[in-house]
UniProtKB/TrEMBL annotation:
Keyword match Iron: no
UniProt entry tagged with the keyword Signal: yes
Keywords of this entry: Signal
Coiled-coil region: none
Signal peptide: 1-19
Annotated InterPro entries: Kazal_dom, Kazal_dom_sf
Lineage per the UniProt record: Eukaryota, Metazoa, Ecdysozoa, Arthropoda, Hexapoda
Kazal-like domain residues: 21-78
Protein name: Kazal-like domain-containing protein
Length: 95
């Protein structure tokens, strides 16, 4: 009986923490931690941006209401090597 009570309390605690981890605005996604840089182009604004992978670009589009589409990596401006290193925060959007 004691085991059932402890297990129940543990499950309730896990549910409570998980429910609080998702923000109210609904923009929470996780992307694979694979660094495979792509170039995204937003034609109506004539802008390009390098993303860590395609998932990150799609999440960016969803969370920030942008319309980047994948294009050849050579279409993006040259960027410093330090800027191309993946930032762990780029794999999670909590907007």
């Amino acid at each position: 009986m004691e085991f059932i009570i402890k297990a129940s309390l543990l499950l309730i605690s896990i549910y409570y923490v998980a429910a609080r981890a998702v923000p109210d605005d609904g923009c929470w996604y996780s992307c694979p931690q694979v660094y495979d840089p792509i170039c995204g182009a937003e034609n109506d604004k004539n802008s390009t941006q390098v993303f860590g992978n395609e998932c990150i670009m799609e999440v960016h589009n969803t969370c920030f209401e942008t319309a980047y589409i994948r294009t050849d990596l050579n279409n993006c401006e040259e960027i410093d090597d330090a800027e191309t290193l993946p930032n762990p925060e780029d794999f999670y959007f909590n907007h």
